[in-house]
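Recap for those who missed Tuesday's class. We walked through two folding examples back to back. For each one, the amino acid string is listed first and its predicted C-alpha cells come directly after. Nothing is annotated here on purpose, so try labeling regions yourself before you check the end of the notes.
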Amino acid sequence: MYQKSNDANIEELVRANGITMVCLKAEWCGPCRVYSPIIKEFSVENEDISVVMLDVDESKGFAAKHGIRSVPTTILFKNGQLITKIPGLIPKQKLQYYIDNLK
C-alpha cells in the first residue's frame, strides 16, 4: 500500500505491524524525482507492505529524529522497529532484496 504522510501521522504508520518502507524525499531533489515512480511501481508489486512517501521539507521532525542528512533515503521498519537506513537512489531489484530478507 502506497501513501503519503507527514509528521502528524508517520509515527503511527511506522509502529504498525509488518514491514513499513519510508522513503524520504524533497521536491527540489533531482534524484528524488527519478526515485518516486520507482517507489510507486515497487509498492504495486509489493502490496503486502506499507510504503510511505515523506517530504523532508514538510516533515522535519521525523527526518531530524532519524538523522537524515541526504535525500532520497529509504528507511525500513518491521513491527515498529527500525531495521536499516539506505541512502541514495536504489534500484528496484535491490529494494526487493531488502524486503525479501525481512519477510
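Example two. Treat it independently of the first, because the proteins are unrelated.
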Amino acid sequence: MGAAVAVLLAKERHIVAAFEQLGAVTPERARTPDEVGVDQRLAWRRLREREIVRDAGDGRYYLDVDVWRATRRLRRRMAVVLLTIVLLAFIVSIVLTQQRS
C-alpha cells in the first residue's frame, strides 16, 4: 500500500510541476489538461477535489499555488506526527520489554 501512495503522490507532483512549468498559476493563464499534458485519472481527481487545480471555465484549469503549499505543509506535519507516534510506540515497547526481564 505504501508504494501505491508514493506513486500517487509522485503523479500529483508531476501534474503540479507541469502547470508550474507552463505558468498556469492564475485563471488568466489557465490551460486545458491536454495543453499541460496530464492524464485525468486518480491523481488529477485528487488535485481537483482538494482545489489545488482549479477550474477556470471553458475546460481550462490552473494551479492554486497557495493551496498546493498548504497541502504540502499539512502532509509534512502529518508525517512528522505519524513518525513520532511510531517512535514513541517503539520506545515504550523497549522499556516494557526491559522491565519484564
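Answers for example two:
The two ends are 36 Å apart (CA to CA).
The chain has a mean pLDDT of 93.
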